[in-house]
Each structure stands twice: as structure tokens, then as C-alpha cells.
Model the fold of this input.
Amino acid sequence: MTERSSSVRPSIPVAGDRRAIVIDDSRAMRSLLRSALETCGFVVSEASDGLRALPQLAADEPFNLALVDWNMPGLDGLALIRLLRKNPRYDRMVIVMVTSEAEPSQIERALAAGANEYIMKPLSAEILVEKLRLLEEEEADW
Done:
């Protein structure tokens, strides 16, 4: 996990409506992630890149969770995370980088930018669900 200067800690609600956005240029990956999130009780939105995600992220109802791919056209995932973490509106949103970037330096960059967690592709729905359960358990530590 990364430490951020903000005193507000992100959290995934354990009850009530949970909203997530999946931001990935692969339609197949968005479908897999959407299905897994819906199984966990999330209402899910999708965007094919960071630029297309921005209007959805700025909507009235905040998202609790964002799953973000690194390599996308337009605004890539790392730049998107940096942009979001500059805005206090997104302090409570959990951001998970879901990407094929496997180098330790890339993981460090994503966490330093403000990602709460990092999941490497390829992944299964089961891996994502387990990671979300772990994030919920760690919520008190955020």
C-alpha cells in the first residue's frame, strides 16, 4: 500500500450501493472485470481510456472503486491516477491498477502516483474478487 499525505483514507463500502468504474481499452478485459465486480454487488460503469473516463468520474455520484489499466490511448492509467489524486473529490475512491506492466519499478510508480493496489494481468475474476476482499479487510488500516 502507498502512504498519502491526506488524512482521508479511501474505502470500499461494505454495505449499501457500491459504484465502480472499469477503465481499460480492451473490451474483453472490461467485460471480465465488470462481471466480477457485479458479482461483488457493484454497479459498474466502463470507459475505454482515461479521457473518456473523466466525465463519468466527475458525475454527481462518486465512485467507490476504479480499476485502471496502465497502457491506454489518450490519457493513460498512470497519468489518470496522478490527475485524480490531485483532486480531493477522489480521496475516498479506491484505485486499483490492473495491468500487464510487471516490472517492480512500474509497480512502485503506480503506488507512488496514488494507486491503492496493483494487480497484474492476466487475471481471473476469482483473483479480482479475492483482492477486493483483502482490500475490504484492510480498510481499517487505510
